[in-house]
Amino acid sequence: MRQVQIPMSRHITLTLMALLIVFTHSLQAEAPAPGVPQGFTPLFNGEDLTGWKGLVANPLKREQMNDEQLAQAQREADESMLAHWRVVDGALEFDGQGENLCTARDYGDFELYVDWKILPAGDSGLYVRGNPQIQIWDTGHEPLFKHGADQGSGGLWNNKDNPRFPLAKADNPVGEWNTFFIRMVGNRVTVKLNGQLVVDNVELENYWEPGKPLPPTGQIELQSHGNKLWFRNIYIRELNDKDDPGVTDDAVTPTDGVIKLFNGENLDGLYTWLKDEQYEDPRDVFRVTDGMLHVTGDGFGGILTRQAYENYHMVLEFKWGERTWRERSQAARDSGLLLHSTGADGGYNGTWMPAIEVQIIEGGVGDLIMVSGNSEDGSPVPIAITCETSKDRDGEIIWQAGAPRQTFDRDHYKRVNWFGRDPDWEDKLGFRGSKDPDSPVGDWTRLDVTCDGGHIQVYVNGTKVNEAFDVTPRRGKLQLQTELAEVYFRRWELWPLDQAPEPGPAN
């Protein structure tokens, strides 16, 4: 047989292909993850319990202890920990007795990888910020079906008002390793189990103090529930504001006087986007007329700030023009102020950058709407708000101060109406509700919007009409919409939160 000499470059290529096949097969096998993910730090060193401690009571009871009492309780908890948790073959092993294993320090917003394995009838979970829990259990154990085990692991089991069960069942068979990826930002949690999304940006409710937000930081706990189990490959990446969706490194906060977004003379600092023309504006939809920002309404799109902003009190005055266009010529005059805009220009239906909208429409000024969409790479931009809500006569969700809080995101109900929106509202030109605080067509209306971290408040002519908490994202560009209705804007200003004028009517 004649020998065929393979060129060195091809030999290396074939060798790399063979290694890749072996590596890919190893990923499918029950082997540990191949090293620390980029940007992550090990929480468990694979050798001992350094960085971990035993559980002392619950957060409320710990707060009631003085320093000496807490130190003594911690010493006792650590002794118990060492009796029931140990390291075996590079994994944390729990013998089925004792209490939770806790991180020695607290964490706020983070991303976490962790492998876990249970035995038949097993039941466990992960606490985040000291709060239960991301569920783990034997999904084939019938006595647990009454609690929802058949729906899979990964759900936020202790939730009462928000979703508690996973979107899908993605568990490997009992006795095999599973992998969680957990992202926690604010009160909201996303979970992937074995690579499949099972919790999509859902609010985790405060178990210890129902109705209150979670504490900003807390310990991560591996829950014990009276059965033997294992954890390994625990890696964390702490998040700060710059890791949040939509957070721009150069976002500006006004600190010394007012920032005028529109100077009354030209469109400096702004740019336009139209669904049909993109960055071009051949019809002059956006123009300056007599010192006003004049939006003719001839198209769909917006005018955007080139700069991102955060933590401000915005004052914006608008009045309706007479003209409406095409399919909305007889519909309610419509526009909008879009906050915390992030992602791609036209990321929503080719029209607007994803954002949180303060609605400007006849009969609905001050409604909050999530304008969902994608980033430049095509991935969805996470958008969510939490509001105190009730329902009007027809079941529409409205803001009601002091009512139970409800979370809304891009994949569920996307609108919270202002508190007095007329339940008989019609999408017709000139509609006006009996309680509408905005001014009649042709007169100026003043909007005051405060954005303070994840907290938004909306005022119309001095009346507070809507409010949101735990907002995602918390900063970004600003947009004014064109939606086939003529509208004029003036006094588009950002003030420091502690220097702004009191909300009130337009001058």
Q: Give the beta-strand count.
A: 31
Rounded to an integer, what's the Rg over CA atoms?
Answer: 27 Å
The helicity comes to under 10%
Give the number of domains. Answer: 2
Per DSSP, what share of the residues sits in E-state strands of 2 or more residues?
35-45%
Gross morphology is elongated
- Major sheet description: 11 strands, antiparallel
Which parts are unreliable, with pLDDT below 50 for 5 consecutive residues or more?
Answer: 1-34, 241-249
Number of helices: 3
Alpha-carbon distance between the termini?
97 Å
| Class per helix and strand makeup | mainly beta
Q: What is the CATH topology assignment of the largest domain?
A: Jelly Rolls
Q: CATH top level of the largest domain?
A: Mainly Beta
Tell me the CATH architecture of the largest domain.
Answer: Sandwich
What is the CATH superfamily label of the largest domain?
Exo-inulinase, domain 1
Mean pLDDT: 88
